[in-house]
Amino acid sequence: MERMLAYPAMKRLPRALLLAVAFAASPWAAAAGTSTASFSATLEPGGTHEECAHLEKGEKRNYYWRADGPVDFNVHYHRGDEAVYPVKREAMRGDGGTFVAKSAEDYCWMWTARDRPAKVEGRISR
Question: How far apart are CA 76 and CA 78, in angstroms?
């Protein structure tokens, strides 16, 4: 008895998936502009951790992070003695999204532990 499927057999999916995974882990992925920076930091109360990168106007970064305790989070850059905060959140345990630079600057994603230690993990990618 022949089996009848309600959908076409997916013979190419496993090969395509294998190729996609191999490419993402290859040196060519960075050359193609698909880079990811993962990080992990343990912060003492009041301690900070930053991940910084220069972005041109219109450049995007996808980010995702989580913490095991509440932390203050921001994305900022400096203009002379002034810090400018395009993103600023308080007492968060996680966040994520796509950040788009409105001007060419050296941007920093920054986490600050509140009144107790916190472990922060995440990634920032193109």
Answer: 7
Give dist(CA 94, CA 8) in Å, integer.
40
DSSP states of 27-39: HHHHHTT--EEEE
DSSP-derived 3-state class of residue 62: strand
Report the C-alpha gap between 73 and 65 in whole angstroms: 10
Cα separations (Å) of 49 from 22, 35, 100? 31, 20, 21
pLDDT digits (tens, 9 = 90+) for 13-69: 444 443 344 434 444 344 445 689 999 999 999 999 999 999 999 999 999 999 999
Q: What's the confidence (pLDDT) of residue 93?
A: 98
CATH for 35-125, among 1.10.10.920, 3.30.420.10, 2.40.10.270, 2.60.120.680?
Answer: 2.60.120.680
Cross-strand pairs, 60: 100
The dihedrals phi and psi of 22, each to the nearest 5 degrees, come to -65, -40
